[in-house]
User: Which sequence fits this backbone?
């Protein structure tokens, strides 16, 4: 929500040579004490979460909760419609024959879990988001092709533009550029 | 991957297909497909006007080509999820080159499949009765009916496949957005890529979401076709109450689905010069899966016969002898030749790696699998009472609607090839040797 109320002033972007160099740079940026930084790559780089010091994604819990709610909701609906609201005797079977409802309960649980995974992922990533200062960089278009970038945002507590530029250059970053948010 | 391409080469090879003007081939195929789709629409209008009496249904066979086509198309869809989800969970890296259009195939095949149960009901305008919607008659669906299970299972399957496909597409749409030249392309790909930035903080949630979607799609594949099989297996008719139906239908679905992926990928790699990305090794592995599932289907055929004899039930025994030697023997033997004998070719490495052989074989397998469902359905034409026996034959409308559904499938597929990346670029890049930061040559791009 922060990003909506207080637009990001800018960030410093540095390019790295390969996934190995990016991994190395992530470790150094983290050790230098920066918090609001990210490592951009065309594909997920193995071991990057550890290098950046990121915790596991909480998405699994989101999926678990949404899926369970779907299951309980559907169980309630089948019970209410067939055993309470409109009782209908079919071949002498019990009104609430839950065994026969398992295929539907399963399908609804899976459906709700899938929605949980999809919308949960989007909200954790703050997507869809069509404007971000980083898109002001011409060079950044390479990130979805074969480029590896480190970005340090201006809202980082220890952000000082000149220091950050010098730091990124010192750890091997090329084409270091300051990208403004407006 | 052949020739160890760089990341940029992969982007170029895949994006170029979408960015260039389509070839004459594409226009030719597209016009044929659209014409067939229009034929489908015209037939559907006539069907809604006149009713299902225009089909060749008769008294013993109450649900003819509609259910045959439904099961056929759902089956085609299964390989897509299998390739995407199950091979993803099993860390089979060769899937990356074919998973995107296998998933697209799933979605379009399920659209075609959903068409048939929807139109067979007669009064199409009250189709919403299958959903638990409150209404003034205080009428609810019968949760005990396998046909209602179908609605929920296939509907869920379609939605989950669509989400899985779209999540996989987002990073590649961002690639197209970043390469876009024209304004309209920038806006469209910009909207659909949702502002993807490829940051690791995004990849972290993204990868888990993908894993979860793969994980929940896996049991879904097995359950959906088991429920489709249950449409048949809960009945009391001879030949239709065998407990082998669910596993047998699932194996058959994967069998026919892989054959369809094979046909489509052979055409795609030829027409779009993707020989380096869809390698002969990938094709050979798919042929091995076709061989395995083909033998599972063959086992199911023989086991059905064995149980028919072993059960001592004379109606059951008659149903199976009638299948093989009755008035529909021709369909039965087409089925056996295509599904059991043809895949045996793949025991030989020479045939397994030969492009023309696998192309013809994959088409024959799909023909055979259509006939499998046909054989199961027309068994109905001879039930308990000889006085009610009849010979079922389709009308021209049955045929036109089935052919039209192929038109719908290929129209959607050709549009997909035109506007979306047909190979999952970010995933292919991720399995290149230089993508691994611990690789010995990871100093830079080769």
Assistant:
């Amino acid at each position: 929500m922060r990003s909506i109320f207080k637009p990001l002033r800018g960030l410093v972007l540095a390019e790295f040579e390969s996934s190995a160099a990016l991994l190395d740079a992530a470790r150094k940026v983290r050790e230098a004490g920066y918090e609001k930084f990210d490592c951009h790559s065309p594909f997920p780089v193995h071991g990057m979460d550890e290098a950046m010091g990121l915790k596991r994604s909480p998405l699994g819990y989101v999926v678990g909760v949404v899926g369970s709610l779907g299951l309980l909701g559907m169980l309630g609906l089948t019970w209410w419609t067939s055993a309470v609201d409109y009782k209908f005797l079919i071949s002498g079977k019990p009104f609430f024959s839950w065994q026969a409802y398992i295929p539907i309960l399963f399908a609804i649980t899976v459906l709700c879990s899938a929605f949980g995974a999809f919308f949960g992922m989007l909200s954790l990533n703050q997507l869809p988001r069509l404007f971000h200062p980083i898109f002001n960089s011409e060079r950044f278009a390479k990130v979805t092709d074969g480029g590896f970038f480190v970005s340090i945002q201006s809202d980082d507590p220890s952000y000082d533009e000149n220091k950050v530029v010098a730091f990124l250059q010192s750890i091997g970053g090329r084409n270091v550029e300051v990208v403004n948010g407006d | 991957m052949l020739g160890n391409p760089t990341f940029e080469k992969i982007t170029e090879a895949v994006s170029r297909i979408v960015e260039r003007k389509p070839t004459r081939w594409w226009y030719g195929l597209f016009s044929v497909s659209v014409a067939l789709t229009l034929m489908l629409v015209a037939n559907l209008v006539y069907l809604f006007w006149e009713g299902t009496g225009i089909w060749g249904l008769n008294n013993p066979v109450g649900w003819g080509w509609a259910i045959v086509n439904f099961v056929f198309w759902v089956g085609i869809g299964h390989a897509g999820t299998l390739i995407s989800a199950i091979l993803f969970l099993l860390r089979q890296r060769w899937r990356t080159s074919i998973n995107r259009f296998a998933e697209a195939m799933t979605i379009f095949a399920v659209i075609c499949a959903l068409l048939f149960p929807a139109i067979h009901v007669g009064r199409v305008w009250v189709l919403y009765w299958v959903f638990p919607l409150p209404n003034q008659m205080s009428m609810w669906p019968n949760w005990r009916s396998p046909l209602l299970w179908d609605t929920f299972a296939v509907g869920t399957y379609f939605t989950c496949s669509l989400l899985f496909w779209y999540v996989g597409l987002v990073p590649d749409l961002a690639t197209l957005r970043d390469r876009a030249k024209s304004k309209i392309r920038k806006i469209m790909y910009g909207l659909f890529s949702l502002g993807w930035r490829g940051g690791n903080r995004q990849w972290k949630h993204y990868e888990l979401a993908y894993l979860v979607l793969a994980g929940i799609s896996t049991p879904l594949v097995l359950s959906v076709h088991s429920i489709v099989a249950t449409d048949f297996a809960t009945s009391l008719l001879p030949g239709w109450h065998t407990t082998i139906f669910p596993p047998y239908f699932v194996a058959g679905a994967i069998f026919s689905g892989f054959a369809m992926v094979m046909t489509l990928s052979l055409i795609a790699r030829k027409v779009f010069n993707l020989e380096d990305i869809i390698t002969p090794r990938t094709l050979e592995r798919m042929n091995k899966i076709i061989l395995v599932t083909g033998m599972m289907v063959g086992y199911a055929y023989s086991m059905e016969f064995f149980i028919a004899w072993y059960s001592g039930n004379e109606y059951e025994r008659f149903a199976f002898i009638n299948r093989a030697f009755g008035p529909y023997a021709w369909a039965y033997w087409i089925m056996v030749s295509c599904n059991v004998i043809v895949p045996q070719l793949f025991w030989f490495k020479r045939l397994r790696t030969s492009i023309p052989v696998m192309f013809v074989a994959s088409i024959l397998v799909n023909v055979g699998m259509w006939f499998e469902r046909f054989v199961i359905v027309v068994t109905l034409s001879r039930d308990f009472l000889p006085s009610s026996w009849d010979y079922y034959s389709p009308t021209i409308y049955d045929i036109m609607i089935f052919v039209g559904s192929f038109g719908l499938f290929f129209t959607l597929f050709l549009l997909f090839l035109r506007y979306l990346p047909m190979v999952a670029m970010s995933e292919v890049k991720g399995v290149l040797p230089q993508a691994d930061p611990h690789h010995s040559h990871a100093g830079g791009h080769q």
Observations:
- The radius of gyration of chain A is 25 Å.
- Chain A touches chain B through 68 residues (CB under 8 Å).
- Chain A is about 45% helix and 15% strand.
